[in-house]
Amino acid sequence: MRPLGALALAAAGALLFAGCASPQGEAGTPPQATEKAASEITVTHAQGETVVPVNPQTVLVLDFGVLDTLDALDVDVAGVPKQNLPKYLTSYASDDYVDLGSLKEPNYEAVNAAAPDLIIVAQRSASALPELSAIAPTIDLTTDPADYLESFRANAETLGEIFEKQDEVDTAFAAIDEKIAAVQKLTPDAGTGLIVMTNAGEVTAFGPGSRFGWLHTELGLTAAVPDVDASTHGDPISFEFIREANPDWLFVVDRDVAVGESGGAAALTVLDNEVVSGTTAWQQDQVVQLDGTAWYIVISGLTAINTMIDEVADALA
């Protein structure tokens, strides 16, 4: 038999341990969970994997599509490239935000001075990732033209995970998917389509797999020319090319307007000639000038993609 003093001492110790191990809240409320949410996650992106903080405090964004999405998700950023900001994002031109230079030529001194916790690049700024990664964790959220919608969705979900906005991303894509389904009901009976871009009087065409190719592969509009070269700025073409393709719908992006260059003739003026005017699209008044900011400058983003889908839906309705 253990001595009475030893038993009492053991009981007191047990009570003390229990009190420390299982604290109760006021009025007998259960203890709060001691497991903490992850403070870092590993992100798979276009150039590899990177460990990034969850809800980083100082975020620098070098892509307008990513900025568009973060703006729609109400996520604060500390710095952006202020050159050629889209009009609907001009609030970021204020002195409240660090000017990071341009998309293709970041101001590395400004980036370093901002002491960022996370840097996000994509598209035009993607090549700067190696240098930026030496300053802070950097991820590349470039979309894949061959799988545009799914790559954009994956990128938005990545942002949702980093900033704990998963529910907001899910809600946004539920609405986007509904719009896409509505357009896909219109395209089978719409005939063929060709998307072209004018630039300083020159014309290039885009087909499936190109930067604008999701008009065909995702929204379902039959390509008037399925084998157009999927280069970044399109396949240079002549007016005769458009006439021979004879699309039922001609979708037009004016690069000069999109990048703020006003020296060249407007896109529809360039195309308004006796060759192109002979196409079904021109004859049937089915030439659609697209929002160059959304399609060419921003490329992706929750606001921009709604703009793009709405333009196609309104044209075909």
UniProtKB/TrEMBL annotation:
Keywords: Signal, Transport. Gene3D superfamilies: Nitrogenase molybdenum iron protein domain. Residues 58-317 form the Fe/B12 periplasmic-binding domain. InterPro entries: ABC_transptr_periplasmic_BD, Bact_iron-sidero_bind, FatB. It comes from the Bacteria. PROSITE patterns: FE_B12_PBP (PS50983), PROKAR_LIPOPROTEIN (PS51257). SUPFAM superfamilies: Helical backbone' metal receptor (SSF53807). Pfam families: Peripla_BP_2 (PF01497). Coiled coil: none annotated. Residues 1-27 form the signal peptide. It is found in: Cell envelope. Its main location: other. Belongs to the bacterial solute-binding protein 8 family. This is Iron ABC transporter substrate-binding protein. It comes from Microterricola pindariensis.
